[in-house]
């Protein structure tokens, strides 16, 4: 990266470091325990992000959990999607090379709509993007079809602030299946609705691009997530319709979903915790590979305002590479890096 860009980023805040080299301590010390990070509790952070930092004072109310209410529409649709995706796996050898490349490219762009868009830009405000990049990311987010940006960000802020409680939409204490996909198959816990409804979402409510979801989101997701990836291979290079539907659409979409869900499940249950052993989120390299950089999860929950979501920057983190790649064209301004954890 050009030196003037590094200076611009590192010079913006007195308590930051450059984005190139990992610290002398950290993960290289074999998971050495770091001192508790005061930023979890809202000390010395930007006021606008305090509402999505971990709140250790919140505790679940005592009493029996409410009865599960199954959302049968979601159960049936998810089952059909994964049956189509499994069939798509058997069709991959018969697909044209262009179809496989197109499906992979679509997967990467869709994933960036979640990781660089709904997550790091709109949920955590870790950087500021100008209109061309925001347009690209909201289109990519629509391709991913994981709820609109506003709902995704609201649930994610609740996940950070009330992590591993009933107010966490995908509470990993309820098991791998629930935190992976089960939370989408049942009605939300009353605590999720109550606490999520009290979060400060004024920043997103003020952004017309995000709040236009009521008009454009449903027709947009049908076009971008299902119709376009099915028709392009079929029409442009003569792929069979079944191959286009089951591989480019069903299989690709299922992979994007499960890669994202693994951040909620596997990255909260399997891995190591070098930054804060008092929280359940963990460093999981395999998740990071599938979720284009989102698997450094213990770090991310310790420092949610770092645009890189990892102390290693570009290492197994395509999302960070994508964000920083826009810098020379001045489409974005890095908002803040985190201070290094204390050894």
TrEMBL record:
Biased composition (Basic and acidic residues): 32-43
PROSITE patterns linked: FATTY_ACID_DESATUR_1
Stretches that traverse the bilayer: 75-92, 104-122, 215-235, 241-263, 314-334
Domain of life: Eukaryota
Keywords: Fatty acid biosynthesis, Fatty acid metabolism, Iron, Lipid biosynthesis, Lipid metabolism, Membrane, Metal-binding, Oxidoreductase, Transmembrane, Transmembrane helix
UniProt subcellular location: Membrane
Record bears the keyword Nucleus: no
InterPro entries, alphabetized: Acyl-CoA_DS (IPR015876), FADS-1_CS (IPR001522)
Reported cofactor(s): Fe(2+)
Topology in membrane: Multi-pass membrane protein
Chain intervals for the UniProt region annotation (Disordered): 14-43
Family: Belongs to the fatty acid desaturase type 1 family.
Free-text domain note: The histidine box domains are involved in binding the catalytic metal ions.
Alphabetized PANTHER family for the sequence: ACYL-COA DESATURASE, STEAROYL-COA DESATURASE 2
Protein name, as recorded: Stearoyl-CoA desaturase 2
Organism field: Apodemus speciosus
